[in-house]
Amino acid sequence: MDLGPPVMVRKQRSISQLKDSHKPILPAEILSSILEYLPVADLIRFARVSRRMQEMVYDDTRWVFRLRLMGVWNEAEARKRFEEAMKRRRATMAAKVAEETKKAVEMGVIPLAAVVGPGGAAANRTSTLFDACEEENRAKLQREADRRRAQARPLSDGFDMMSITPLTAELPRASIRDPASLLKVLPSVKSVRGFARQEYGRVYGALAPLYFDLAKAKTHTDPVVFRIFRDPEQQAQVLAQLRVFARSDTAYGWGERLERLNLMTGIFENAALREFEGGYESGDIDGRMKRYAHVLILLNGGAACIQLFVQKHPVMFEREKLGNPMDSFDTPTADSFTLDPSSEFFNQLSAVLNEQATVIDRVFPADVNVMLPFLERVAEDVVGEYITPILDEAHARNMEMYLKAVAGIYSQCMAFAGTLKPTKGSREVFESDVLDVMNRVFEPHVDLYLQDELEYFRKKSQEEVDKWERKILDADAATESFYMSNINREADKRDFLSTFKKVILMPVSVIPLPFANRNSVIIEAKSIEQSPYSNSDRLSVQGPESVPGTPGPEGRKSPMPPPTTELAAKAAIMNTRLEGIRSLFSLEVALSLVHNAKESLERAALFARSGGQTGEEAKEQCEAIFIALLQVLGPRHVKTGFDKAVEHLSAYNPRAATSHNHVAPLVTFLELVNVGDLIQQMIDVFYETELVAPKLTDRNDFLNPAAKEKKRFEQMLDERVAAGLNMGIDVLMNEVDHIFATTQLGTDFNPGVLGEVGGVGDFDIGPTDTARQVVDVVGGHTRLLVGSTDKNVLDVFNQEVGVRLFASLCKHIKRQRISVDGAIKLISDMNHYHSYIQSIKIKSLDPYFNALRELAQIYLIDPSHARQMATVIADPSRFGGIFRVEEVYEYATRREDWYRVKREVERAMYGIGCVVC
């Protein structure tokens, strides 16, 4: 029977099954996770199962984790120690290699030339020597040394020699020999990579017996720790270490053990607190209070004794002795408020706290900050309870009183914080900590205060503007009532149309026409003098300043009687309003609004310095106050005033004015421009001083609401000024046209129009009175803008005035009859206008007035030189491109002798190839 093959097969199967039986059933990761929940004794047993299990238990990261749970592992220290160890190891290896190389050279194993360079120095390269026999012997010696060290491993190596028998109530012999060494176990732990197991083993061997003994104790007299340590300081120190050691207990039942430990610690803490309280009540500051304060601080930081110390202070229960909040309102004057009682309150409280700071330094160690929690409790229970009734009562009585009370008491709190003295345990930022405590007292009041501050400023600003507007309206009503007081309305209504025709349309007839002679002018003048409306019944446009009997905005009166007709009265009223155009907005009102905003900002800025969220909210509210200022001052006051001023300018009629030396509404509007410029500069200074300098806003942030509103205000002001100046140019040119029409006599440029015989020498060669008056009016108004308006705006204004003046002169020349003798006057006038244009230094206007000077030359040419006249007319380059030939020809037709020279001039122009008609 052949049994060979089956027997071999069974043997092979049994070998394979034996190999499979050594494979772990669970993955190594799961086993490693299970080990986290095993007691240390079980971990030692688990490490003895196999080498793989030993490696798993001895893994350094496992013990580093436990040290970290206790908070005694310092990763930075471990990294530093590791780097230093590596440096020492590399140095040792380098020395060892150098020693072996030296021996090999001496024995002749390697030649000296292999390690020594040509210059006698060691070659800068590494030589590797390998001897198989030598290496094998070295490995055997190393294994033998490891085996001997394993057999005689000392206690410092960790848990290898630790007893795993059940713990008893007796302490290890090391603790009995030196109990004081247990007090320094945790502080002496070193963070060394690769030795975490040994460090934890040393801590476990010292504290675990006490920990488990305390966990099994039934009463506070059972634990061994209270028998071997009799001093409260030592007991507190050991209990504190046991609380730290308990953090590394992750085995089953850790919650019950921790609860028992906390119970025993609480019993000890209560006993120490009773001793501390007894010393507090008996005044034993340097005895029982100081000792048991240190005991409680060693136990758990001393939070319980600090809280007891704070709560037991008499100031918490006798705060009424410091002052009554209602004393600030109990003043002889009704609805008045004073900060003197609150100032006295803070002075007394400061003295109490500074006295208590000395007691704190005597009782508590220098590394414990007791003053700060004491201040926090005082701020909450004493300061807060004092200021809240004051602010609530002030808010109920008067809003302005409330705002001043908040700012005043907050300032006193900040001053009070500066009077407190730090203790030895206070931090270096003690002042900042105290300020934070005081700010927290005001946190419940800040939101309401900031909102009320903004609303109060808005309301007060609106009332300021409304009050000013009512004053202006009352002044206007008083003026109107004065002018209308002497009028028979029924009689005036019946002849209103006739009065209107005779008075309003009368000045039109005195305007000299281009072909009117002197006789017609004299006739018209005589008819006006003989008119029944030439005296008191004539339309009067004199203002309050020129008529002494009219009342001004303040209601001034004089002996002069009021007008006797309704039309004259209405004209006087309109003129009064035009004269009072400067009252459309007031610099005084703007100053008052800015002053109110400054007061509100100064109060709100106190909270902006506190920092944190409250500080940011206060800064936003400061910006909101500035925005409210601009909204009231801009659209509500300045913009409305400019709009009304432009409306008055548009209603100006130069024919109704008695004086043409200046345009009164335009002069006053330009004064408004000066006031507006002052207001803008005032806002700029206010913005830089009150907002930018204290860092309440960021002017470089183009999205900042305050900066955007400021730009919007400036844009509004520029637009209103531009609109007014545009209307002012129209009014100014209307005035110039009126001066041309009413003052330019027909004999100015045509002396022989009335039949007189005379030459050039019979009259003054200088400019006419009309030219002088026009230049004075235009120049006087433009000079009012110098210094108050941006140079670019002023240049644009002057340029537009110059262009419009040029157009008016062109129309004016076309309405005149100019003789050869009168051409001299015309040339003098053109030179006068040219000199004015050069004085304003707008070079773009020079070609226009140069062309006018050249144009005036065609009237000086003698009629006998018709061909020369034609040459001048047909030369387009002579006028710099300003006038075309057709236009020059049209101006030439205004010559007094044109119909005598027309045929000769046109024939000459045809001869030179110029056809214009």
Can you give a write-up of this model?
- Residues 26-66 form the F-box domain.
- This protein has 917 residues and is mainly alpha-helical.
- 65% of the residues lie in helices and 0% in strands.
- The protein is built from 34 helices and no strands.
- It has helices at residues 4-21, 28-35, 40-47, 51-57, 60-70, 75-107, 112-115, 132-151, 173-177, 196-215, 225-228, 232-245, 254-282, 285-300, 303-311, 340-363, 371-397, 399-419, 430-483, 489-494, 496-504, 518-529, 566-579, 587-608, 612-650, 664-692, 705-743, 769-783, 791-814, 823-840, 846-856, 866-873, 885-892, 898-911.
- Helix 12 packs parallel to helix 14.
- 29% of the residues are buried.
Which percent range fits the helix content?
A: 55-70%
The total count of strands amounts to 0
Structural class: mainly alpha
Please state the overall shape, judged from the principal axes of the Cα atoms.
Answer: elongated
Task: Tell me the radius of gyration.
Answer: 54 Å
Give the termini distance in whole angstroms.
Answer: 154 Å
How big a fraction of the residues is strand?
A: under 5%
Unreliable residue stretches: 1-16, 118-132, 153-174, 492-559, 757-762
Main beta sheet strand tally, sense and closure: none
Instruction: Give me the number of helical elements.
Output: 34
Mean pLDDT: 77
Which quaternary structure do these chains form?
single chain
